[in-house]
Amino acid sequence: MKYFVTDDQRESTAYHEFYKGKWDKETFWSKDSIDLHDDELVNHKGFYDALHQAVPGYDPYEMVEVSAENWKAVKSFIPEDDTESLDLYDEADAWAKDVLKEHGCFTILGL
Fold it and tell me: Which residues are CB-contacts of 44 (< 8 A; sequence separation ≥ 6)?
């Protein structure tokens, strides 16, 4: 993956964890999560801004559930000319499709 890493590839705790399903309020750095380094989030303003617009209550320092509807809306808010943010979304979407089908949501665990 270009933007996200798996738990065994993390080099610090400065990551936003995309956790399968509803967060159990206990587990961090799950083996089946994908993690986005804070620098990647900040450097991809189109993706960052789209999360704020599409996901009610999104805060990069908190935990927030993302529904299938919210996730689909994220892509619609990314400017068409921001190809890197669209690529970042598509990379996460490859993971999110199965998660949303199985769990109905995923949770972003902020910094």
Answer: 3, 82, 84, 85, 88
For 19-56, write each residue's pLDDT tens digit: 999 999 999 999 999 999 999 999 999 999 999 999 99
Residue range of the domain that includes 49:
14-109
> Is residue 99, in this structure, part of any structural domain at all?
yes
- The pLDDT tens digits for 63-109 are 999 999 999 999 999 999 999 999 999 999 999 999 999 999 999 99
In a domain, 61, yes or no: yes
Sign of the CA dihedral 37, 92, 87, 8?
Answer: positive
Residue 13 CB-density burial (10 A; 0-12 exposed, 13-18 middle, 19+ buried): exposed
